[in-house]
């Protein structure tokens, strides 16, 4: 990033914003063709627990709603989860102001609503030791019997559709896995599985940003090298034993 940064904090999250100047990248020297990234604002939100108890996220969302056509939104997620309502508010602002221009970094964990927020982004970047977990929501209601029943049925229908649209429609869990989640199954995943399922689109590894496919190839290559080194070590031990006899 370049230019003066602006900081705005809530109880659990911190928003930084910065104006990025126009950038040109040469893509064809012979034809003198450039890819132009117009001047825009970059918003970066550090996500903690979804648990705003005072005034909520009014200041953060008010700032984000000032976004213009080319502005981008990044999430740095290290969250154990929290209130689903706050996560849905982020979903709304992503749809309204940043559709197609959101990036989420799983730094370091994303559980429950943290996992959902990561799943909502257009580009989803993990690290080799990122940690992730899907599970069903928890909640309750108070009031007269009929009121409790009506509220729980309404909330359940709404949230199950929301979770289904984010998780199943994108192919991150199968329909069968999702139904198991609704009755209590937790799905814990590391970076390798996140890439295999398409939840993570990229991984930052050894100073490089790899696509999920490239990262899986990297892991396969690493495994092969370790296997060959192990064989060589075992062979060296056997040779040493023969010499000492």
TrEMBL record:
GO molecular function annotation: peptidase activity
Domain of life: Bacteria
Coiled coil: 212-239
InterPro entries listed in its UniProt record: ClpP/crotonase-like_dom_sf, ClpP/TepA
Biological process annotations from GO: proteolysis
Xref: Pfam families: CLP_protease (PF00574)
Keyword entries, A-Z: Coiled coil, Hydrolase, Protease
Name of this protein: ATP-dependent Clp protease proteolytic subunit
Organism: uncultured Sulfurovum sp
Taxonomy of the source species: Bacteria, Pseudomonadati, Campylobacterota, Epsilonproteobacteria, Campylobacterales
